[in-house]
Amino acid sequence: MTGSCKRKLLVIGKAKKPRCFKNIQSLPVTYENNSRFWMTSQISEKWLRSWDAELKSGGNKILLLVDNCPAHPKVSNLKCIKLVFLPPNVTSVLQPTDQGMIKALKTQYRKLQVLQMIQNIEKSKDTKSLNVLDAILMISEAWEKVTQTTIANSFRHAGFKDLSPSQAEDDDDIPLVRMIQSTDEDDNVPLAELVA
User: Fold this and answer.
1) What is the pTM for the complete model shown?
2) pLDDT at 127 (0 to 100)
3) Rg (alpha carbons) of the chain, rounded to whole number
4) How far is it, in rounded angstroms, from Cα 196 to Cα 133?
5) Residues 6+ apart with CB under 8 A from 195
6) How far apart, in Å, are the Cα atoms of 81 and each of 57, 123, 161, 192?
7) Bridge partners (DSSP) listed for residue 13
8) Of 135, 2, 139, which is closest to residue 62 (Cα–Cα)?
9) What is the pLDDT averaged over residues 47-74?
10) What is the DSSP letter of 21?
11) Could you tell me if 107 and 69 are in contact, meaning their C-beta atoms sit under 8 angstroms apart?
12) What element of type H or E holds 57?
């Protein structure tokens, strides 16, 4: 939420081992494949379980916001990751990645893509010669360029606030997540009113 720790990106491609990966020992992203380039529940679960194992070995625990896409299943027996699913049809409003992070990532990626095209023109190469490895290296570099401030602002724009013990909490300063999860009948406010 603060942007102080960024996870490696998960990239989904079509080929299991693209030819451009020949002689490549490691990638700066996690690479998975399926015939449609889509996230699947199997890929999602595998990725979550791998991350959970990493967190367990480091002694860390996290809360992960997940939209209600069918490719994001409820995964049981996670030790260090608590999944919180967003209500239907509110992803564009409540999902922090939709509040600036994705736009910043795409902007950085497109800048790198244009620079690559310019270099190809200067070297008299095909301007469209971009393989999966090139794209992976660029998206990884673009993700590195997304700033901590952009990530923190995206969470803040989605209604999340830093609740460190030093901060007092007014009645009007309740984080949106706690408002959504509220069980008190008096606080049963429609979601549309919470985000207005």
Assistant:
1) 0.76
2) 67
3) 20
4) 43
5) 90, 93, 94, 159, 176
6) 13, 48, 20, 28
7) 33
8) 2
9) 92
10) G
11) no
12) helix 41-58
